Amino acid sequence: DTSNQISVAGDYAWYYRQPERFMITDSAMFIQISEKDSLYLHGDTIRSVTLTDSLGISFRLMSAYYGCRIFSRDMQAKCDSLSYSFRDSVIRFYNEPVLWAEENQMTSDSMALFTRNRKADRMELFSSAFVASQVDTMRYNQIKGRSLTGYFRDNELYKIEINGNGESLYYLGEGDEIMAVNKATSSGIEIYIDKGKISVITENQSPDGVIDPPSESPESNPRLEGFGWYDRLRPKKILDIFKN
Questions:
Q1: Which of 26, 33, 143, 241 registers the highest number of CB atoms within 10 A of its CB?
Q2: Is residue 233 included in any domain, yes or no?
Q3: How far apart are the first and last CA of the chain?
Q4: By C-alpha distance, which of 57, 51, 85, 84 is closest to 70?
Q5: Beta-strand (E) ranges in the chain?
Q6: Taking 60 as the threshold, does the pLDDT of residue 2 lie above it?
């Protein structure tokens, strides 16, 4: 589809003209072509159907199932299944999705990525939102809440808002100069990101927190409930989208 700058491939494909739809399986891959950062998607099965809305406007809805993985230069993701609406340019991730944006890992029960002009614009994590980034081999910055909104600029994540039941645990200092760990709760948290790293964290609406010295023992480093580190599942290059 040159008009939408997309390409699909796979070992087996079925195409139907009326109404227009297709299914691809076995090494199925969808590519959204961009001059600077193309997006590559793999799932066991990829389907596309043409639907008509209440105004009589036709649009394409694509779905991918089982072991979905996405790779682009600035962002990667994995989930069990997803859908992509060509009407509103939204990718919806289902069943324990994980999304990586530079050094930040985001998880939730489900999420949606809103795109504009083939670039990430905004993302929503709808339930049990969790953001983590690795400080060193023993320590992780962690932020969680009921839901999350993330904002992108030029395909790079620059701001995160935690909405409701916010908890944060982050380390003060860098490298060998970790001086303290800050643990706080707040109904709302704002995080600003610079060059892939958390630069500012602001707890709004009656925050409550403590600052403790860092632990030297790996077993003693604190974890917020729901923490998990899934870097082993992250696609590091295009061909990694085909790994189970």
A1: 143
A2: no
A3: 28
A4: 84
A5: 6-9, 12-16, 21-25, 29-32, 39-42, 45-52, 58-71, 75-85, 90-94, 98-101, 104-107, 110-116, 119-125, 129-134, 140-145, 147-153, 156-172, 180-194, 197-204, 208-212
A6: no
Residues 117 and 209 in one domain: yes
Residues 150-166 pLDDT 10s = 999 988 899 999 999 99
Q: For residue 211, what are the domain limits?
A: 99-226
Pair 70, 120: CB distance under 8 Å: no
Distance between CA atoms of residues 220 and 55, nearest Å? 58
pLDDT at residue number 84: 93
> What are the backbone angles phi and psi of residue 214, rounded to the nearest 5°?
-70, 150
* Whole-number Å distance between alpha carbons of 172 and 82: 37
Q: Determine how many CB atoms are found less than 10 A away from the CB of residue 201.
A: 18
CB–CB of 155/120 below 8 Å? Answer: yes
pLDDT at residue 71 in the model: 97
> If you average pLDDT over every residue of the chain, what do you get?
89
Residues 229 and 225: their CA atoms lie apart, in Å, by: 12
Give the Cβ contact number of residue 9 at 10 Å.
12
Provide the token pair at 71.
Answer: 């790779």
Provide the domain count of the chain.
2
